[in-house]
């Protein structure tokens, strides 16, 4: 299957997700940092907000340099999907298992080394989406008929990876 089989194109750069027509489909709203929240036990959420201001998805803010577990929620706070890393991280990357809200397996996301590329496959092994990072911009290619829970899980993984990239030591030099 080639990239031509994944006709939907999205770009994620900074805090914006843009479609192939150049229209903003969502904005990433990150929690504000403060001394008060720095030592808080409650984990803040990153939200994807539609252009009309409504929340589309939310996921936990990343606090580590790896994706271990993500709960992806809709605007009402209901879980849409869960993403969990399988085993440890190898030299070439890791595998993330994706399950729906009821815990049924949906497939996997292969994470490239340093979380700079991803490939989603369903349980039959069919490729659903890819994402790659170049020059601080993520390019996402998605199958047109991609189920909503899958799209939510894949976008959440890419946003989480963007959060991890922002924590990289070279960004603080």
Would you kindly provide a brief summary of this structure?
With 173 residues, this protein is mostly beta strands. It contains 2 helices and 12 strands, in the order E-E-E-H-E-E-E-E-E-E-E-E-E-H. The protein has helices at residues 35-38, 148-166, and strands at residues 8-13, 16-19, 24-29, 45-49, 55-60, 69-74, 79-90, 93-100, 105-112, 117-122, 127-134, 137-142.
Could you explain the architecture of this structure?
- This protein is mainly β and 173 residues long.
- It has a single domain (3-172), classed as Beta Barrel (Porin), CATH 2.40.160.
- Helices cover 13% and strands 47% of the residues.
- The chain has helices spanning 35-38, 148-166; strands spanning 8-13, 16-19, 24-29, 45-49, 55-60, 69-74, 79-90, 93-100, 105-112, 117-122, 127-134, 137-142.
- It has a twelve-stranded antiparallel β-barrel with strand order 1-2-3-4-5-6-7-8-9-10-11-12.
- Strand 2 and strand 3 form a beta hairpin.
- The longest helix has 19 residues, at 148-166.
- The chain is globular, with a radius of gyration of 15 Å.
């Amino acid at each position: 299957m080639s990239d031509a089989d994944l006709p939907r194109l999205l770009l994620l750069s900074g805090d914006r997700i843009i479609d192939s027509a150049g229209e903003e489909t969502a904005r990433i709203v990150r929690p504000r940092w403060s001394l008060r929240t720095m030592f808080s036990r409650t984990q803040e959420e990153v939200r994807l907000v539609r252009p009309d201001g409504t929340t589309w998805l939310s996921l936990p803010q990343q606090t580590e340099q790896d994706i271990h577990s993500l709960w992806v929620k809709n605007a009402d706070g209901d879980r849409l999907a869960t993403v969990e890393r399988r085993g440890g991280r190898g030299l070439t990357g890791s595998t993330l298992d994706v399950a729906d809200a009821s815990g049924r397996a949906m497939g996997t996301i292969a994470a490239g080394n340093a979380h700079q590329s991803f490939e989603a496959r369903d349980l039959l092994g069919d490729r659903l989406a890819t994402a790659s990072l170049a020059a601080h911009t993520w390019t996402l290619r998605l199958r047109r008929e991609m189920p909503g829970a899958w799209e939510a899980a894949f976008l959440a993984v890419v946003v989480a990876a963007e959060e991890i990239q922002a924590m990289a030591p070279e960004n603080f030099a």
